[in-house]
Records
---
Amino acid sequence: MLKGALIGVGHVARQGHLPEWSRRADIRLIAAADLRPEGQAAFRAAYPETRWYSSAEELLSAEALDFVDVCTPPAQHAAIARAALEKGCHVICEKPLAFSPEEIAPLAALAGRRARALVTVHNWRYAPALAKMTELVRGGAVERIQRVRWETRRNRPAAAAGEEGNWRVDPAQSGGGILVDHGWHALYTLRDWLDGEPRAVAGRLETRKHRQFAIEDTADVALDWGGARAEIFLTWAAESRANSVAIEGDRASLTLEGGRLALCEAGAPAQIWELPSLAEGSHHPEWFRGVVDEFLVEVREPSLRGRNLGEAAAVARLIALARESSRLGGEFVLVPP
């Protein structure tokens, strides 16, 4: 039985994480921390005899824990992860793990010294539609990938607990706009499909609709993968929620519209799968199950640690390069080796 604590009990924690933690027999949350009291009722409904703290510092000082689950606004992720690792806890943390690659490097070093797992919540990988696409790509269904087009369309940023101050639209709390909020998911998923790292990145960030916020609401990113090109379009300025992904390969193509996945090969009938849409909801507790399994593998098998952490560092680097490109007018910038 692993003993853990939840730090940050907002919408994502209550609707995305708690349902999975509370169903597992091998894990028990014994405490939670949040300055806001709103999440206490939901947490205590799942775990009646637990302790509640007003800060991460207070919780970490008082409790003997195996792990912590960090669900605070992103500005607090790196500091809480560092404090938890120093206390000897394994850490599972909502994305982004940190605002920059430079912040991730010392966290990785600390996790290594303390012999602890540090895993970022890369939950879109476990969406049924994307998991099926990964299965088909890895099984050779399209052969060599030539082009990928990813689109995420929303009409506004997702809500956050305490609507009078939505952290997603405060760059000091979020670390950026839609590029970090949705682009993070697109980038680690693309790395599941394309070999190695991209050679160059180009980005254009703009605000098309939500000019009251000091962040971009639209991002257009292109990546040169050396023989393959990936394009990511993200916006909070659309008329409605929608997701689409298209993969073009030497042999066949895969297209995902909402939850309808089609594999099309010349001279053969299309194969169709009807799966849950990526645009359904924002918290996805069923996707978090795969993340927990991934986290527990790293907790229990030290030799398997580091893949997720390396992935988070690579994504943070690509986001930083896309921003640099946007500042340069959208020209390609090389990805350092």
Note: The chain is about 35% helix and 25% strand.
---
Amino acid sequence: MLLDLTGVQLSFGGLYALRDFSLSVGEGEMVGLIGPNGAGKTTTFNVISGLYPPSKGVVRFRDQDLTGCPAHEMAARGIARTFQNIRLFDRLTVLENVQVASHWRRGYRLWDAAFRNSRFAEAEQGSDEEAEALLATFGLYERKHERATSLPYGEQRRLEIARALASKPSLLLLDEPAAGMNPAEITALIALIARIREEFGISILLIEHHMHLVMGICQRIAVLDFGVKIAEGTPDEIRTNTRVIEAYLGEPVENERRQ
């Protein structure tokens, strides 16, 4: 397993956001994480990415115990994420937003940057080329010198994913990437996510409320409700799972049938 969460627990003021939660993601696997609002999905991402240390349980990545490691260390280990609400650097250009994510990999020292020597120049050129290649992949190359916040909403979403990929992760966490998109944009996003997994050879853990997106591209799906995992399985198994249906409908399925 690339990622393995075991018995993870997290509470805020006595209220459990996650309780005894376990989940694994294999190499090259596409896994969906779904559930009603407030189920604990984004909290799970915050634990994996190092924003919240769990109060109990273990987070293992590439068979190393990284429980409680800070976000910058998780990123350096190969975990990248997007956010439910777009978080671009609004004063930077499209190109600069992508370059920022690769800064830690450039390998030059403060001395090199201060004197702009050959080592600095070579690293910056390589960064430019990598960022431009990513923007071309995401259809944003022609807009590389525009401010990031001038892009239409759907393109800002794509830029955020491109920025996450610039850190060259082995695990990509996508938090509701289709939020706010129209049907045409969602269809294009489905193709893009599938392409990312194939071309970049990475694992993807996806939070999404658009069920046809999750069911269409995920190999396995886990379902959270009030911080507890109530089901896990293939899309077909989840689609017909009684507990999952109850969690979304808010009442037992038997009651629905009697009506």
Note: Residues 120 and 134 are 21 Å apart (CA to CA).
---
Amino acid sequence: MFRRIPPDDIEITPFQSHKSFSFTNANSGSQVYAFKAVSQSLFNYASGSDFQQYTFPSPTASQGFYKTPSYFWAKNRYYNTFNDRDVGPINNFGGSGQFASLNIHNQVNLLSIPMAYCGEKIKPSSIEITDNSPTHKTITLKDDGFGNLYDSAYSASFAAYQSSSYDSTKLTTTGSGGPQLLGGVVGNVFYSEGIIAVTDTGSLYKDVLANSGSNGWEMDFKSTVTNVEYQYFLDIPEFKYNKSTNITTTFGRSGSIEVPVSGSAYKFFPPGNSPVYTTGQDSGSNNSYGPKRFGATEGVIDAVTGSYFAPYVTQIGLYNDQNQLLAYGKLANPIKNEDDLALGIVIRFDVNG
């Protein structure tokens, strides 16, 4: 029994979901890599001396990167800007927005996250990187949601920097410098490409993401995936869909069907079976069928003819205009479809992307 669902009874709502991930410098099998990229002259460039090999302990694996080509790739892709007379300065590919502070020096430490983990993009304001360098105390880096990576130890100066109240003349220059003067910005995040870049070359940050073992790093973040929620309201009016098609209601429980004599009979048999219609005594054998064996019943049992009888709804299928089944669900409990009561059922499910 089919019923067309009016468009007004259909709701399609997209929504975003986020999943947490955590990686360390030992997770080579995940294809999450951190490596150092360094600027130098390309005159008489020797690739052999520029190659840097990283070995990961768990599982044991190696991955190599060329430091100089990696640097120019990052610089040209994310840190070269050009001016447009209508919209002003535009970053070539980064897409972190107008609030990102894009500065690169002669070195950048890159962390690459496959899109299999990022989904559509890294969720802004979800990144936390913990680095244990042998030359200084543990450093914790976070992103501000606008494409800036900052040292959480300088969160106060970073907040002032973002609020336009930043005044470098009032900040002390003791220690190693860097984040005190920059308001805490030490790099950038390119959310839609899964790239994290540490661009501060001060002594505190030049080795961030470049160490391993007990001096390695750990990164936590959340991915972003768009899902779509489909909701259908199924309206069953009074005195509708109150007849049963259950085979047990037929008289004698024969359950037989009337198979046509025409060429469409193959639809009633398994694929590859080509029975022949016959009226002989062997009708109904493996290779033939006939009216005696497949005659349809004409009556129902007395139990379903009473005025109090009503079928129960146990399962619902959603079909397209070609009567192809697209979705199928079972109710938690059977619902009695009373003749004099309207019945409403909400069907809801989510589809990824």
Note: The CA atoms of residues 8 and 49 lie 67 Å apart.
